[in-house]
Queue: 2 jobs
Job 1
Amino acid sequence: MVFCQAAHANVFVVNVGGSAGLAFQPGFLNIAPGDTVVFVNKGGFHNVKADDNSFRCARGCDGQPGGSGAPSSSNWVASVTFPSAANIGYYCEIHGQPGKGMYGTINVLAPQPPPSLSGTPAIGTAFATLLALALTAFAGWRLRRRV
Ligand SMILES: [Cu+2]
């Protein structure tokens, strides 16, 4: 199960600054649990900090070996993996604050059950009923012919 989830995990890129100005692009992202978001500084003095303080990244992330979430103007790349469903707001400490200025949102959506699971049994039951009716009618027709 864990291997399967990892195999289906996706990677999303969020551009930081650069030609987008003082913004994250895309500023709103829908992802699934296990997916990774890679923040890429396209230019400017920026970092990425979660509203709930769950991460702070720039040249790596706080708490990672050799990582630092302090704002930096280098061409940094930082990746954050989101293991479970949540609505995560984040911002640049220099140009934004939660929900204002240079900020963004990552919506980690819980996996939906496949829609075919609810539809298939109903179709199967209807088909079985039709088949039973047809067999009964045929049996009745054969019995009447013998008399
Ligand atoms: Cu910034």
Job 2
Amino acid sequence: MSSRLPGITTQYEWRDCYSVGNAIIDQQHKKMLLLCAESEKCLKSAGPESCEKFHDLLNEMAVCAREHFAKEEELLLARHYPMLAEHAEEHERFQTALVDFLVSAVQGEQDKTGVFRFLSEWWIHHILVSDLDCKPYFEES
Ligand SMILES: [Fe+2]
Ligand SMILES: [Fe+2]
């Protein structure tokens, strides 16, 4: 696997094996990976515009993540997923981290590479590990 930035994965390019068998959830995951890819582009440019763009991407991610987690939790609740509380807690921890990043961005103290690494690794883990575990509960009949 190639990586254009040292130590940063490019796994956030969508692959069919990431599918959880649910069109809405897959679409939302694709959007999240796209936001990670856009964030990576921001890392390559310096200056105030790229900081502003990075902040906009974080805001967009916060909005999309809220909607996405709500959809997942709705499905998992309806289908009686036994680990729902733990899964929802993972979602909650992500939202808290994202709010912290947004606050530090407003205060002008953002480590964009660190934030990007956290976000892209979080989404890969979320999609490939946590959500794939729930696949039987997400799949459309
Ligand atoms: Fe997800
Ligand atoms: Fe999830």
